[in-house]
Amino acid sequence: VHELTLPTSFRGEQIRPGDGAYNAARTRIFNTAADAKPALIVRPIDVDDVAAVMRYASAHELPVAIRGGGHDLDGSGMVDSALVIDFTRMRRVTVDPAQRLARADAGVLLGELDRATCAHRLATVSGTVSNTGIAGLTLGGGIGWLMRKHGTTVDNVLAFEAVTPIGERILVDPTSHPDLFWAMRGGGGNFAVATTIVYRLHPIASPVTGGRLVYAAEDAAELIALWRGLMLDAPRELASTLIIGMLPRFPFVPKQHHDRPGVQVTVCHVGSQEQAERDLRPLLDYGNTIAGQVKPTSYLEIQSMSDAMGIHGYCAYELGGYLPPRIDDRPGERLLARAFDTPPRRSPVDGAVVMLTRMGGAVDEHPDESAAFAPEGAGWYWNAVVQWALPDQAEPMRKWARSVRDDLHEETLDRCYVNLTVDQGEDWLRRAYGERKYGRLEQLKAEWDPLNLLRYNKNVRPGNGASHGHESPGLMTAGR
Ligand SMILES: Cc1cc2nc3c(=O)[nH]c(=O)nc-3n(C[C@H](O)[C@H](O)[C@H](O)COP(=O)(O)OP(=O)(O)OC[C@H]3O[C@@H](n4cnc5c(N)ncnc54)[C@H](O)[C@@H]3O)c2cc1C
Q1: How far apart, in whole angstroms, are the C-alpha atoms of residue 40 and residue 20?
Q2: CB count in 10 Å sphere of residue 186
Q3: Which end of the chain is more exposed for a tag (fewer CB within 10 A), N or C?
Q4: Which residues, in sequence order, are CB contacts of 261 under 8 Å at separation 6+?
Q5: 8 A C-beta contact, residue 381 and residue 320
Q6: Is the dihedral angle over the CA atoms 80, 108, 55, 61 positive or is it negative?
């Protein structure tokens, strides 16, 4: 384990078991349930360092784990006994306001990218918790407040700079490597190590309108029905997520409601204030809130209002799936019943909630084949999210999340967003992308990473693409 010796050209940081910094480095991730003890954590300072590590790994056929922002739900940014590339020291963002694009290194966090772009009143589509890494989020897809207006994160990627598993530096864009560009926009970190990502930016209103409204259990059923109607026909400027479950012990919830069942509606409207006022009227007129406010505010404020969900260093588990656009009352009723029957909270971080997010809008403008991630036709995304501190909470928490999945099984589509759910094995992954796209991913994996050095992810194994439906399966198999 201690024999891993990188070439002397590597200039970054190396952290080994026994080093003072080791324990802090290995636990700087969202889900520490695996308590992984890597053999060596390296922190490159530039792309040459990354290439040096990958050349070394490929020469020794060593699989490599990669930590971007550390938010992977399986904790696969830190892996037991593995060589880990930790992008913590590659955090540069540059913004070109005239061209409306941003270049961000693979260690950049969402909040850092947003702060840099918002200084020019511009933003790209990203996630909703500011200490999430741009790299994992983008490689797996990317959904957030701006997706209904501007598409998903991958719809806004212009290029990747990357290092291949054998240590070559490449530019991946629609002209230089179109197939790889397709695969890296949703296929995860399976194909190459992204070192810099170039994003398209959009003007962002200042102020935007948004916030969180909190409701007690007795109004929940009525409120969910109202919200569903509002969001089904909502304009693209309006995005919203429901959070159903025991109310957290956070300052925005009055003390007497802590640990009691309730519903939170989080909202972001990026149109004019007049339009927001009009579009949100049914919700505002409903009243009945026990806490919270929707008001003109900054986009940066909205982008960090859910940060309490991103605390590092505890155990976590999450399952999720798409529902079709037209849903009746049933999913809401089932979610309510389940979300108010969670395992008891045994530490302040314990939490078990179901979230329901409206997809649609501009997301539907990018056809299924446009990228490995393209949730065209998905109406809603549900996800059951649990987090806990004590080891004996693991089973009840996971079991509860599985019960939500079982309750919604009938309505849930086969396709799935791989970033917002834990790994559920190869058959599930195949269904998540669909046979045809999965086949293409397998083929590209065989081309770019035949040794599967990049395997600590929602892993697409190198394959012959037999299920890749462009040609007859017989020909494809024979040709490889
Ligand atoms: C609290 C929380 C909130 C979230 N909110 C959202 C949300 O609003 N929208 C959304 O779309 N998703 C969201 N997610 C899911 C998130 O997109 C994924 O967890 C994503 O993988 C996180 O990326 P990361 O870089 O932080 O994670 P990491 O753990 O660092 O990496 C995730 C995966 O990507 C691989 N990877 C990382 N960097 C690279 C690289 N440079 N090259 C190749 N492979 C790499 C890793 O090996 C790993 O398999 C959330 C997750 C959490 C925990």
Answers
A1: 13
A2: 27
A3: N
A4: 216, 217, 220, 245, 246, 247, 339, 340
A5: yes
A6: positive
DSSP state of 204: -
353: which strand partners? Answer: 245, 385
Which residues contact residue 280 at a Cβ distance below 8 angstroms, ignoring those fewer than 6 apart? 209, 238, 267, 269, 294
117 in Cβ contact with 166 (< 8 Å) = no
Total Cβ atoms within 10 A of residue 176: 11
Q: How far is the CA of 67 from the centre of ligand 1 (A)?
A: 9
Rounded to 10 degrees, the C-alpha dihedral 40/43/47/48 comes to -60
CA distances from 63 to 54, 128, 185, 194, 213 (A): 9, 31, 22, 16, 46
Lowest mean pLDDT among 47-51, 105-109, 324-328: 324-328
Rounded Cα gap, residues 154 and 363, in angstroms: 10
- Under DSSP, the state recorded for 462 is P
* Tokens, residue 367: 């056809």
320 within ligand 1 shell (Cβ under 6 A): no
Q: Is 80 left (phi over 0), alpha (psi -120 to 50) or beta?
A: beta
- CA torsion, ordered 130, 136, 140, 142, to nearest 10 deg: 20
Q: What is the pLDDT of residue 250?
A: 86
Q: What's the CA-to-centroid distance between 436 and ligand 1, angstroms? A: 25
pTM: 0.96
Residue indicated by tokens 């834990």: 422
Terminal C-alpha separation, the chain: 36
Is the pLDDT assigned to residue 453 strictly greater than 80? yes
Residue range 186-195: average pLDDT?
Answer: 98
Quickly count: other Cβ atoms within 10 Å of residue 340's Cβ. 16
- Cβ(95) to ligand 1 under 6 A? no
* Helices (H), ranges, 202-328: 220-232, 273-279, 281-286, 299-304
Q: Is the CB of 132 under 6 A from ligand 1?
A: yes
Angle at the Cα of 448 from the Cα atoms of 446 and 450, rounded to 5 degrees: 45
Strands 380-388 and 351-358: antiparallel
30 CB neighbour count, 10 Å cutoff: 24
One-character DSSP codes across 388-442 = ESSGGGHHHHHHHHHHHHHHTTTT--S---GGGS----HHHHHHHH-HHHHHHHH
CA of 319 from ligand 1 middle (Å) equals 15
The CA–CA distances, whole Å, from 280 to 120, 205, 272, 283, 322 equal: 27, 17, 12, 6, 24
Predicted pLDDT of residue 49? 98
Q: Taking the CA atoms of the chain, what radius of gyration do you get in angstroms?
A: 22
- CA 139 to ligand 1 center in whole angstroms: 8
